[in-house]
Amino acid sequence: MSENRLKYETSPYLLQHKDNPVHWWAWGPEALAEAKRTGKPILLSVGYAACHWCHVMAHESFEDAATAEVMNSLFINIKVDREERPDIDAIYMGALHRLGEQGGWPLTMFLDSEAKPFWGGTYFPRESRYGRPAFVTVLLRIAEAYQNQPDNVRKNTEALLASLKDDAVTDARGNVPGPDVRDLVQRIARAVDREHGGLSGAPKFPQWNIFWLLWRGAIRFEEKTAKDAVVTTLRNICQGGIYDHLGGGFARYSVDELWLVPHFEKMLYDNALLIDLMTEVWRETQEPLFKIRIAETVAWLMNEMIGEAGGFAASLDADSEGEEGKFYVWSAAEIAEVLGTEDAEFFDRVYGVTPNGNFEGHTILNRLDSLALLSDDEEARLAAMRAKLLSRRALRIRPGWDDKILADWNGLMIAALSRAAVVFENLEWLSLAERAFTCVTTKLSAGGDRLFHSYRDGLAKAPATASDYANMTWAALRLFGATQSETYLAQAQRWAEVLDQHYWDGEGGGYFTAADDTTDVVVRLKTASDDAVPSANAIQLSNLIVLNALTGESRYDDRARELERAFAGSAARTPTGHCGLIAAELDLDRLVQVAVLGDSDDRLATVLRQISLPGDVEFIAATATSLSSQSALGGKSSIGGRSTAYVCTGPTCSAPLHAPEEFLERLRASRGETSDETFR
């Protein structure tokens, strides 16, 4: 019997569509078998819960009975949550790109009955507008072409699949020279908007991969222009409308070049990566704004993003009551009503509130007119006002909450929190990270050391991707550094083994996105290029370098070098698209490892917390490291009851250090700079 089967799913995005008159299937063997049985083409619709234009297309077309009738009669209709099945999304988004389309969500793809793509697009309106044809017109034309032009459809599917497969071809046996990293950093820095930060133009995304490489280059090569580019970008993001000045947390991107008007959804991964980058930049600059925003964002995480069993939820929607941003914007009159005339006048000056507003007659709170913080007394006064407004905002209808727990995104947040907890000496943050780690290892367990990708409402599902293991390995290594618990190091090693066993390309090198036992993908993708989140291959390259350093086991170094060679050609051809990978490669031969051992004098630990060492491995422990004797830091301990520091660059370690000044000088030397204070 034909029906909408999404009512049996757990994904909040899929459940948003459970009452559509469309006979939706979720992606899976049953849906694919039905397509083969009927011979009908597949209409694949991919989106996510916080996607504004996904909601628009749903309201216009999927809730419309007449449109649904056409869909049901001509197609097998499959709905996919891109966050639950990122492997499926990546395949068909890649196919769309090869059709010459820019891409985005909702993704609307047409597949043959074998799930091979032949045509697609993104948002289609119900009636023709925006230069796009009406959705029903598209449906009828595609169905007609599929029925009457089978040779053309077959040629399209073959060409698209061949192109996708070609992109996964790499060669770990080659010896392609990498890009000049310093030159690359200089070129990217010149492309950054000097006034507002971010890459020049609009829209603007935080783009962690790019700004992480810029920061790495700034520290390694003493590139002040790159440093200024990162700091300027973070200042504007922290004071812009992309930041929620009342509740904390960053939206996904800004539609303008000022960071003023956000696309209002908040994603876990953006906030994780921004916390991590800001933590590292704060260590170098000690800029109070960054420390404040980190603390506020972690508070938002604790208040609004804790899901089942302590895992972190995926996102908050852009829309409420059918309007984008309605939950977050203000009128001058409402602010005056809450704060009173005198306080409202002060608040309005600081946060850019005007009677006419800056967004559809309302105001998005921001501090872009003056990025600098005010006096302590004035900031305290503003904090009290923000608390009042937050209380008022709590009475509004909230945006949708996607509370599914994703292994890869949780890995990013756990890694960020673990480092921030050490830098800012916050045990509560560390506990938060450890609890989320336990959630992933228990609730998302697929048996042994295998993971599922997603968990919600008591059910773990969707095959894990390489990013799930890579990001959780990063999380485990960061937790090991923060706690010295060997449990985390052992888990990192076991996940590295899973990646090697089920994801490694034995012929060309590199890790495939999907495992060798994932049966419902038409092609196994493999990439190290940047996306909104760092690629699995880039993250795992860093992990392998660290595992080699911590264990002294050469197999990790061998695999890291194979991985680097596998994507050397791609990185050389398009270096700006491989910033995450290139940043990781900086540590291949000179990973910095630092230990501060003993608790008789905390000045050494303070020195370590207040200098940026991006990509390094750090330990602050009471007595000695618990590392293998084959590790550079293995067997190191405090000497003579005094706090003692060690700095290792590659396999070479310093003599024991006791004086803070000497320790600082050695740390600066380890990262490639001189002791010149002008860069700092």
Structural class: alpha+beta
Percent of residues in helices? 40-55%
Q: Indicate the radius of gyration in whole angstroms.
A: 26 Å
Mean pLDDT: 95
Estimated share of beta-strand residues: 5-15%
Q: What spatial form do the alpha-carbon principal axes imply?
A: globular
C-alpha end-to-end distance:
69 Å
Low-confidence stretches: 673-680
How is the main sheet built?
Answer: 5 strands, mixed
Strand order within the widest sheet? 1-3-2-4-5
Total strand segments:
18
The tally of helices reads 25
How would you sum up this structure, described in words?
With 680 residues, this protein is α+β, with helices and mostly antiparallel strands. It is 47% helix and 11% strand. It is built from 25 helices and 18 strands. The strands form five sheets. The chain has a five-stranded mixed β-sheet with strand order 1-3-2-4-5, sandwiched between helices. Helix 9 (208-221) runs antiparallel to helix 10 (224-239), helix 13 packs across helix 14 and helix 19 (486-502) packs across helix 20 (536-551). The radius of gyration is 26 Å and the shape is globular. The relative contact order is 0.09.
